[in-house]
Design a protein that fits this description.
The chain has 220 residues and is α+β, with helices and mostly antiparallel strands. It has a 6-stranded mixed beta sheet. α4 packs across α5.
Length: 220
């Protein structure tokens, strides 16, 4: 006579083992599915703060891209001779926020008409750039460029945001990371004094700082 309890049968044990494997594997699968975007839009403190709070964004990290040198420092980049821009690397879940929607929020948090810097920060290290990884990001970035031009009623040539392939992202120094959260008084004063939000409102109107669909009706 078999006295083994029913729930210890071979099939339930196999089912339980499979369930445990799925649960344990879920975080790794979710991490593998994440994607990254590298974007320059003036002060990386501000762009990091603006993009990290979007639903579907997993994290945002301030850093440098665009130059030829390795391991650039803040002093080298801000001096303007390294060729790098202040950037933010955004890691996101494409199942919750697409690259195209992330780009909409990016555009509406910068001044696309200014290629000499952003707001009160001047020089090449602050110029706006979309750094793309692969043909798909390149195509979507170009599509977003056309959508911005249509929404603002400007020719594409009036937009000063560069779109270029990503070479390498270099993380910024630790004291730059999460600056808005860790130094809220200094950050809020800087943002106000720099006139960032006033200019965004002037350029974008009610769509400033928004990820809403393009006014032109484009689906990009």
């Amino acid at each position: 006579m078999n006295t083994r309890p029913p729930f210890l049968g071979a099939r339930p044990l196999a089912w339980l083992l499979s369930l445990l494997l799925l649960v344990c594997a879920a975080p790794a699968q979710a991490g593998a599915a994440s994607q990254e975007a590298v974007l320059a839009g003036g002060c990386f403190w501000c762009l990091e703060h603006d993009l990290e709070k979007l639903p579907g964004v997993l994290d945002a990290q301030s850093g440098y891209s665009g130059g030829a040198g390795s391991n650039p420092t803040y002093g080298q980049v801000s001096a303007g001779g390294s060729g790098h821009q202040e950037v933010v690397r955004v890691r996101f879940d494409p199942g919750r926020i697409s690259y195209a929607i992330l780009l909409r929020s990016y555009w509406r948090n910068i001044d696309p008409l200014d290629g000499g810097g952003q707001f009160c920060d001047r020089g090449s290290s602050y110029r706006p750039v979309i750094f793309t990884s692969g043909a798909d990001q390149q195509n979507q970035a170009q599509a977003s460029l056309r959508s911005v031009a249509a929404e603002l009623g400007r020719p594409v040539t009036a937009l000063k945001v560069q779109i270029k392939p990503l070479n390498r992202f270099w993380p910024a120094e630790a004291y730059h990371q999460n600056y808005a959260q860790l130094n809220s008084v200094k950050y809020n004063y800087y943002r106000w004094a720099c006139g960032r939000d006033r200019r965004l409102d002037s350029v974008w109107g009610k769509r400033a700082r928004s990820g809403a669909a393009w006014a032109s009706g484009s689906k990009s």
